[in-house]
Fold this sequence. Notes:
Blueprint: H1 5-16, H2 18-23, H3 27-36, E1 41-44, H4 50-54, E2 59-62, H5 66-74, E3 79-80, H6 82-86, E4 96-102, H7 110-120, E5 124-135, H8 137-141, H9 152-161, E6 164-172, E7 186-193
Helix pairs in contact: 1-5, 7-9
Amino acid sequence: MTADRDYTARLEAETARGWKRALGAQAPYRHHIRRVVEGRVLDVGCGIGRNLHHLDGRGVGVDTNPHSIEAARRSGLTAYSAEEFADSADAMPGGYDTLLFAHVLEHMAPSEASGLLGRYLPYLRPGGRVVVIVPQEAGFRSDPTHVSFLDLDDLARIEEEHRLTREAGYSFPLPRAVGRFFIHNETVSLSRLR
């Protein structure tokens, strides 16, 4: 479901909503992403490139949805399918300061989430940062393509499997209790490659 044209169209429609643009709804999320990532970023599950736009050219995206990749490219971003990325000049071992998994891991079983993270770790420099962002309860319920609800404890298990050291875990933009009813509240985990 996340790899079809309808999913991309939904992402594009959400981004284009006039009231969200008028109110600057993305401003806190843009500021947050810029604050938590470091240096060159590999955005795994980049979708249509919302976070890549926030990074002002410091990022490369990878996604499984060919329609989303095309939308990201149309807007001037660098985005690849997994296969394209592996064969590209951007697939440099240790070539990224941050791996970003924003609203990706909830779309799969925890074992698959761990496998995905592990697949891209070789592209992270030693001591580099991993940023994982997942929805809280209301956000999880809002999308039928979500498979696994993940909290900080679940993310800690995945991080430990890959010898990542947690630096911080928190709720954004509002306190954790708000996530039960506010769709856009997120759980954020920041960790480092040992």
